[in-house]
Design the sequence.
């Protein structure tokens, strides 16, 4: 019997295959839109589900190679198994997420620094004010601030 | 089976690759050299159990050290 070497399955190029049948895919990302730190952080959260390799192409774009890890039954139970299509879509979403996160972090940096400067550069007379607050009488009608030993006496030996 | 992986110098740091190599020394014979714009890592996977995934896991490990 003659074997058919050029079966449709064999002639079908890998890149023409539907994404769900493929085990690896690539994304070319513009580093001006997605800085390297954003790509590292995004890739990091997928390392348990896929093998990820980064490289630069001739157009200076960051190429992300995503290769699906084989999934075992236990993973399936924990809903850890994702198709390549899911991972690719999720990766794109997470890129946006982390871009936003880094932008907000940058934006809030000056505010955070100002708050820390304010705290650490407070003059010594303010310390007296803080001490006064802590040392002043606090209204405690239910006796919550009274230590257990003071309120109920020391523990008996048998309680220990 | 000798596996060669090229890590782009603009994407991966030498420190991360060095650390990963140190940690993988107990698993397989591995060394690195620099060539043009890449760090080239050669892994000898002859005596390892999982030949296919070990290099992929190594790449993932280097990437995790970049964070």
Sequence:
């Amino acid at each position: 019997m003659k074997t058919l070497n050029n079966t449709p399955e064999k002639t079908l190029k890998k890149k023409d295959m539907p994404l769900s049948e493929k085990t690896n895919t690539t994304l070319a990302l513009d580093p001006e839109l997605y800085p390297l730190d954003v790509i590292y952080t995004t890739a990091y959260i997928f390392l348990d589900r896929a093998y990820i390799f980064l490289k630069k192409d001739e157009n200076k774009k960051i190429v992300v190679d995503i290769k699906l890890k084989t999934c075992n039954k236990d993973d399936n139970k924990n809903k850890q198994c994702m198709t390549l299509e899911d991972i690719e879509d999720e990766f794109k979403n997470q890129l946006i997420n982390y871009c936003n996160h880094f932008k907000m972090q940058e934006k809030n940096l000056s505010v955070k620094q100002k708050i820390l400067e304010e705290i650490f550069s407070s003059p010594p007379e303010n310390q007296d004010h803080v001490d006064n607050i802590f040392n002043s009488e606090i209204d405690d009608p239910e006796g919550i601030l009274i230590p257990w030993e003071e309120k109920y006496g020391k523990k008996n030996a048998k309680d220990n | 089976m000798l596996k060669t992986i090229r890590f782009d110098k603009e994407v991966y740091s030498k420190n991360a690759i060095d650390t990963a190599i140190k940690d993988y020394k107990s698993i397989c014979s591995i060394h690195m050299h620099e060539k043009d714009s890449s760090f080239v890592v050669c892994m000898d996977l002859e005596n390892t159990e999982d030949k296919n995934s070990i290099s992929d896991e190594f790449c993932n490990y280097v990437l995790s050290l970049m964070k």
